[in-house]
Amino acid sequence: MTDRSQSVAVIVGVGAGLGAALARRFAERYAVALVVLIVAIAAAVAINYSIGWLIGRFNLKSAGGGLRIALICWFAFLLMPYTTIEAFSAFGRNPAEIVLINMGQYLVLFAIAGVVLGAWRRNA
Protein backbone atom coordinates (compact mmCIF):
# COMPACT_ATOMS: atom_id res chain seq x y z
CA MET A 1 0.00 0.00 0.00
CA THR A 2 1.34 3.39 -0.88
CA ASP A 3 1.82 6.14 1.68
CA ARG A 4 -0.90 8.12 -0.04
CA SER A 5 -3.61 5.51 0.21
CA GLN A 6 -2.52 4.33 3.64
CA SER A 7 -2.76 7.75 5.23
CA VAL A 8 -6.05 8.53 3.52
CA ALA A 9 -7.54 5.17 4.48
CA VAL A 10 -6.76 5.85 8.11
CA ILE A 11 -8.17 9.38 7.86
CA VAL A 12 -11.39 8.22 6.21
CA GLY A 13 -11.75 5.29 8.56
CA VAL A 14 -11.16 7.38 11.64
CA GLY A 15 -13.58 9.95 10.21
CA ALA A 16 -16.32 7.50 11.09
CA GLY A 17 -15.05 7.54 14.64
CA LEU A 18 -14.54 11.26 15.14
CA GLY A 19 -17.60 11.38 17.33
CA ALA A 20 -15.92 9.35 20.08
CA ALA A 21 -17.33 11.60 22.78
CA LEU A 22 -20.79 11.36 21.27
CA ALA A 23 -20.41 7.61 20.93
CA ARG A 24 -19.52 7.30 24.59
CA ARG A 25 -22.48 9.43 25.57
CA PHE A 26 -24.72 7.37 23.30
CA ALA A 27 -23.38 4.19 24.88
CA GLU A 28 -24.10 5.48 28.36
CA ARG A 29 -27.56 6.75 27.49
CA TYR A 30 -28.79 3.75 25.56
CA ALA A 31 -26.85 1.04 27.42
CA VAL A 32 -24.82 0.00 24.39
CA ALA A 33 -21.47 -1.50 25.22
CA LEU A 34 -18.58 0.76 24.29
CA VAL A 35 -16.83 -2.32 22.89
CA VAL A 36 -19.46 -2.53 20.15
CA LEU A 37 -18.72 1.03 19.10
CA ILE A 38 -14.98 0.38 19.10
CA VAL A 39 -15.50 -2.70 16.90
CA ALA A 40 -17.57 -0.58 14.49
CA ILE A 41 -14.79 2.00 14.25
CA ALA A 42 -12.18 -0.74 13.71
CA ALA A 43 -14.33 -2.25 10.95
CA ALA A 44 -14.62 1.15 9.24
CA VAL A 45 -10.84 1.56 9.36
CA ALA A 46 -10.30 -1.96 7.96
CA ILE A 47 -12.76 -1.46 5.10
CA ASN A 48 -11.33 1.89 4.11
CA TYR A 49 -7.77 0.61 4.42
CA SER A 50 -8.65 -2.28 2.09
CA ILE A 51 -10.23 0.02 -0.47
CA GLY A 52 -7.21 2.32 -0.24
CA TRP A 53 -4.88 -0.63 -0.68
CA LEU A 54 -6.72 -1.76 -3.82
CA ILE A 55 -6.64 1.76 -5.24
CA GLY A 56 -2.90 1.92 -4.61
CA ARG A 57 -2.33 -1.61 -5.95
CA PHE A 58 -4.10 -0.83 -9.21
CA ASN A 59 -2.32 2.55 -9.34
CA LEU A 60 -5.53 4.51 -9.78
CA LYS A 61 -5.18 8.26 -9.54
CA SER A 62 -8.70 9.59 -9.99
CA ALA A 63 -11.93 9.80 -8.06
CA GLY A 64 -13.64 7.75 -10.76
CA GLY A 65 -11.13 4.93 -10.40
CA GLY A 66 -11.60 4.91 -6.64
CA LEU A 67 -15.36 4.92 -7.08
CA ARG A 68 -15.18 1.91 -9.42
CA ILE A 69 -13.06 -0.10 -6.99
CA ALA A 70 -15.31 0.76 -4.05
CA LEU A 71 -18.48 -0.13 -5.94
CA ILE A 72 -17.00 -3.42 -7.13
CA CYS A 73 -16.10 -4.25 -3.51
CA TRP A 74 -19.60 -3.26 -2.34
CA PHE A 75 -21.26 -5.34 -5.02
CA ALA A 76 -19.09 -8.45 -4.69
CA PHE A 77 -18.50 -8.63 -0.95
CA LEU A 78 -21.55 -6.98 0.57
CA LEU A 79 -24.56 -6.88 -1.76
CA MET A 80 -24.36 -10.35 -3.27
CA PRO A 81 -23.92 -12.30 -0.01
CA TYR A 82 -26.59 -10.24 1.75
CA THR A 83 -29.01 -10.66 -1.16
CA THR A 84 -28.50 -14.41 -1.12
CA ILE A 85 -29.13 -14.62 2.61
CA GLU A 86 -32.23 -12.44 2.37
CA ALA A 87 -33.64 -14.35 -0.59
CA PHE A 88 -33.62 -17.60 1.36
CA SER A 89 -34.66 -16.11 4.67
CA ALA A 90 -37.68 -17.68 6.27
CA PHE A 91 -38.94 -14.26 7.28
CA GLY A 92 -38.17 -12.38 4.07
CA ARG A 93 -41.48 -11.57 2.45
CA ASN A 94 -40.21 -8.66 0.39
CA PRO A 95 -36.51 -9.40 -0.02
CA ALA A 96 -35.93 -6.85 -2.79
CA GLU A 97 -37.20 -3.93 -0.72
CA ILE A 98 -35.34 -5.07 2.37
CA VAL A 99 -32.08 -5.44 0.44
CA LEU A 100 -32.45 -1.99 -1.14
CA ILE A 101 -33.12 -0.37 2.23
CA ASN A 102 -30.38 -2.15 4.14
CA MET A 103 -27.67 -2.01 1.47
CA GLY A 104 -28.43 1.51 0.21
CA GLN A 105 -26.61 3.15 3.09
CA TYR A 106 -23.52 1.04 2.45
CA LEU A 107 -23.63 1.91 -1.23
CA VAL A 108 -23.38 5.58 -0.29
CA LEU A 109 -20.64 4.95 2.28
CA PHE A 110 -18.54 2.86 -0.09
CA ALA A 111 -19.01 5.41 -2.89
CA ILE A 112 -17.89 8.30 -0.67
CA ALA A 113 -14.87 6.33 0.57
CA GLY A 114 -13.89 5.38 -2.99
CA VAL A 115 -14.17 8.94 -4.28
CA VAL A 116 -12.21 10.41 -1.37
CA LEU A 117 -9.48 7.76 -1.49
CA GLY A 118 -9.23 7.91 -5.27
CA ALA A 119 -9.08 11.70 -5.46
CA TRP A 120 -6.62 12.18 -2.60
CA ARG A 121 -3.35 13.79 -3.63
CA ARG A 122 -0.49 13.67 -1.17
CA ASN A 123 2.16 16.37 -1.31
CA ALA A 124 5.41 14.47 -1.31
Q: What does this protein look like?
A:
It is a single chain. The chain has 124 residues and is mainly alpha-helical. The chain has one domain (3-119). The protein is 79% helix and 0% strand. It is built from five helices and no strands. It has helices spanning 3-15, 20-30, 34-57, 63-87, 95-119. Helix 1 packs antiparallel against helix 3 (34-57), helix 3 packs across helix 4 and helix 4 (63-87) packs antiparallel against helix 5 (95-119). The relative contact order is 0.17. The mean pLDDT is 79.
- The rough form would be described as flat
Oligomer: single chain
Pairing-aware structural class of the strands and helices? mainly alpha
N-to-C SSE string, H for helix and E for strand: HHHHH
The average pLDDT is 79
How many individual helices?
A: 5
| Total discrete domains | 1
| Helix content class | over 70%
Name the beta content range: under 5%
Q: If you compute it from the alpha carbons, what radius of gyration comes out, rounded to the nearest whole angstrom? A: 16 Å
Q: Which spans of ≥5 residues are poorly predicted at pLDDT below 50?
A: none
Number of strands: 0
* CA(first)-CA(last) distance: 16 Å
Biggest β-sheet strands, sense, barrel: none
